Amino acid sequence: MKHHFSDYITIYIHQSDLIISNYIKNLLSPFNIAPEQNLILLLLWENDGLSQSELSAKLGKDKTNIARMVLNLEQKGLIRRVSDENDRRLLKVFLTEKGRKFEEQVIPVIDDFNDQVLQGISEEELNAVRRVLAKLIDNVR
């Protein structure tokens, strides 16, 4: 049986990711922040003082990638890295005052975007999407 371009679910997922990622990138550009950097800030706004290893695990990114993003956020004055008292090799990441205030600017924009993306989608549909995506991921692990 011959397969058509539209038969592959991964194409829909990829196209959705590209469109949504580009939209978020444009939304965040006035704040001079990349979407992946914003994910780090979202995690810290929720739970300040995570280690770089914890950020890496939560975002599914390698430690080198996280270290680069953290350094960039530090250069922007939004976070600071502190060596753990018990293990000097462990770097914990904390928001600065500027980083905490930044939340007030960014969260309304992200919340509006989230509302727009989920418009017309029920909680039941959203949960179904989560379940299906989790299965797709499990199938390739």
UniProtKB/TrEMBL annotation:
Keyword Transcription recorded: yes
Pfam families referenced in this protein's UniProt entry, alphabetically: MarR
Source taxon at top rank: Bacteria
GO molecular function: DNA binding
Keyword list, A-Z: DNA-binding, Transcription, Transcription regulation
InterPro entries xref list: HTH_MarR-typ, Tscrpt_reg_MarR-type_CS, WH-like_DNA-bd_sf, WH_DNA-bd_sf
Residues in HTH marR-type domain copies: 1-138
Protein name: DNA-binding MarR family transcriptional regulator
Organism placement in taxonomy: Bacteria, Bacillati, Bacillota, Bacilli, Bacillales
